[in-house]
Amino acid sequence: MQLDDVIAATSPDAARMEEAMKRSVRWLDRCIAAHKYPKTQNLFCIIQGGLDLSLRKRVLACTALLPEQKPRYVMGVGYPEDLIVSVALGADMFDCVWPTRTARFGNAITSSGTLNLRHASYSEDFSVIDPECGLTIHNVHYLLHLMRSARLAIMEDRYPVFIKDFFAKIYGDDPGRFPGWAVTALRTVNVDLLSM
């Protein structure tokens, strides 16, 4: 994986965001030139762009040039909603500290949303965190199970239905509660969350 110029995705500094993207691409060019073992080593590129739609469109144009059989890797994405939407958009792999970090702060990711286990209402509650999972290493297990389920839905050609069921389980039957970014992103791949 090449070096990248890291900047907060939510930075309001558009010039700095573009600088980070261009610098990361220049570093990728240097990595490609120096890559000596392409048959035995993989090279993963990192393209910055933050939340700036125009920069993301430029990134999208680049990813369209990647060979179809090569994996798409998304770094820093760990929320269940992010994973499900990213898979719909073509991502294959993810890497993020959020699932384990949030566990250290007392939060559990469940099939019906995230629970703050430090809340007083859980002080005497010794029931399982999620009826669909009996493990204590819960957050990592939950996300692995979620990705296995997503893979199966893709293989069975029912991923759009899987996405809709996933969002309905977390946000209820009120599509108005669905994150706008997810609704918009999924429309680009012909999945309409609002038509349930």
Topology at a glance:
Blueprint: H1 14-34, H2 53-63, E1 73-75, H3 80-88, E2 93-95, H4 98-104, E3 107-110, E4 113-116, H5 138-155, H6 159-171, H7 180-187
Parallel strand pairs: 1-2
Antiparallel strand pairs: 3-4
Helix pairs in contact: 3-5, 3-6, 5-6
Q: Which regions have little confidence, pLDDT < 50, spanning 5+ residues? A: none
* Helix/strand structural class: mainly alpha
* Major sheet: 2 strands, parallel
Order of helices and strands: HHEHEHEEHHH
| Record field, number of beta strands | 4
Portion of residues within helices: 40-55%
3D shape: globular
Which percent range describes the beta-strand content?
A: 5-15%
Mean pLDDT: 86
Distance between the termini: 40 Å
| SS field, number of helical segments | 7
Radius of gyration: 19 Å
**Strand line-up of the largest beta sheet:** 1-2
Walk me through the structure.
This protein is mainly alpha-helical. It has helices spanning 14-34, 53-63, 80-88, 98-104, 138-155, 159-171, 180-187, and strands at 73-75, 93-95, 107-110, 113-116. The strands form two sheets. The protein has a two-stranded parallel sheet with strand order 1-2. A two-stranded antiparallel sheet has the order 3-4. Strand 3 and strand 4 form a beta hairpin. The longest helix has 21 residues, at 14-34. The protein is globular, with a radius of gyration of 19 Å. It starts with 13 loop residues before the first helix and ends in a 9-residue tail after the last helix.
